[in-house]
């Protein structure tokens, strides 16, 4: 690197660092902000890219720092500088050197303010916190977190299922009657039988719907299961859960009746309705008898 060059002094004289007129802008900054140092004089045009400040005293090391050379011509060069020392610099001179050429600036003045809030001078900046040491290995904390999540999931699921059961019980209570469950169903079945004897073919879908509704209401009253609120598969699971012995005895007939009801949902005749009524009556009688036996076998 060949920096700024000045005319050589006469032979036999010592080469003192030449002084060049300089000015700095802006004159007021905060710590770390950029300023422009502009110097004029008769020097060569070779660009200077690594000029640094040579402090006279160690405590002056951060009063002025060269960041980069902005421009260099035979008549002027501009340097990007900053300061990391707060306070006012009044009429100070600085030596600049690139390792080969050294020059001295004319007296310059500027003020450097702190970045701290003057209203709170005692505050100090602080860095990020951590990392923190864990007394136990990371896999332990991962396993603990997963266990907590699993426990919360079980608790939430239990709560939601309990709330759903309470809602279903409230719905089932709406179907309570003065007559016992089997007596109420027998009355409904006799009414459906009378309708069948006087019905036309176009009445078959309506009668089929009444037949299914009366049987499901019987299951609600007799077994306390949500026969109208859930699907056939969920209903069978509920009967198996709450009436295991009865389910073992009546499972095949229950599945057959639900299959026949679904089969004739879109197209049904009066003959189909009569067959469904006979099948549902026999199944209701079996459920009633099994429920009595099961209730009598309980301690």
Can you characterise this structure?
- With 299 residues, this protein is of the alpha+beta class.
- The chain has two domains: 19-113, Sandwich (Immunoglobulin-like); 169-297.
- 44% of the residues lie in helices and 17% in strands.
- It is built from six helices and eleven strands.
- Strands 1-10-9-5 form a four-stranded mixed β-sheet, with no helix packed on it. It has a four-stranded antiparallel β-sheet with strand order 2-4-7-6, with no helix packed on it.
- A hairpin with a 3-residue loop joins strand 6 (65-72) and strand 7 (76-82).
- The longest helix is centred in the middle third of the chain and has 36 residues, at 138-173.
- The chain is rod-shaped and about 130 Å long.
Structural class: alpha+beta
Alpha-carbon distance between the termini? 107 Å
Q: Low-confidence segments, ≥5 residues, pLDDT <50?
A: 5-14
Mean pLDDT: 81
Short description:
The chain is an alpha+beta fold and 299 residues long. The protein has helices at 138-173, 181-198, 204-223, 232-242, 244-263, 270-297; strands spanning 19-20, 22-25, 28-30, 35-40, 52-54, 65-72, 76-82, 87-92, 95-97, 102-105, 108-113. Strand 9 (95-97) and strand 10 form a beta hairpin.
Protein topology:
Blueprint: E1 19-20, E2 22-25, E3 28-30, E4 35-40, E5 52-54, E6 65-72, E7 76-82, E8 87-92, E9 95-97, E10 102-105, E11 108-113, H1 138-173, H2 181-198, H3 204-223, H4 232-242, H5 244-263, H6 270-297
Helix pairs in contact: 2-3, 2-6, 3-6, 4-5, 5-6
Key attributes of the depicted protein:
4-stranded mixed β-sheet, 2 domains, 11 strands, 299 residues, alpha+beta, 4-stranded antiparallel β-sheet, single chain, rod-shaped, Immunoglobulin-like
């Amino acid at each position: 690197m060949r920096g700024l060059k000045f005319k050589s002094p006469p032979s036999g004289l010592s080469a003192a660092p030449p002084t060049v007129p300089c000015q700095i802008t802006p004159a007021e900054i905060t710590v770390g902000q950029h300023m422009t140092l502009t110097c004029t004089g008769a020097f060569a045009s070779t660009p200077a890219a690594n000029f640094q400040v040579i402090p006279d005293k160690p405590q002056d090391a951060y009063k002025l720092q060269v960041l980069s050379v902005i421009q260099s011509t035979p008549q002027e060069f501009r340097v990007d500088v900053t300061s990391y020392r707060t306070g006012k610099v009044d009429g100070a001179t600085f030596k600049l050197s690139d390792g080969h050429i050294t020059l001295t600036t004319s007296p310059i003045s500027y003020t450097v303010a702190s970045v701290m809030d003057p209203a709170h001078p005692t505050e100090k900046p602080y860095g990020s916190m951590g990392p923190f040491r864990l007394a136990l290995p990371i896999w332990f904390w991962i396993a603990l977190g997963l266990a907590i999540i699993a426990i919360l999931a079980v608790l939430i699921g239990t709560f939601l299922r309990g709330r759903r059961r309470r809602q279903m019980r409230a719905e089932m209570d709406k179907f309570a009657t003065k007559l016992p469950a089997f007596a109420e169903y027998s009355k409904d079945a006799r009414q459906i039988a009378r309708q069948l004897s006087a019905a036309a073919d176009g009445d078959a879908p309506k009668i089929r719907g009444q037949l299914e509704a009366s049987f499901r209401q019987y299951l609600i009253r007799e077994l306390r299961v949500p026969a109208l609120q859930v699907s056939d598969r969920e209903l069978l699971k509920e009967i198996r859960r709450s009436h295991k012995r009865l389910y073992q005895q009546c499972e095949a007939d229950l599945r057959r009746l639900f299959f026949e009801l679904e089969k004739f949902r879109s197209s049904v005749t009066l003959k189909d309705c009569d067959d469904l009524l006979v099948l549902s009556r026999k199944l209701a009688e079996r459920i009633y008898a099994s429920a009595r036996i099961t209730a009598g076998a309980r301690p």
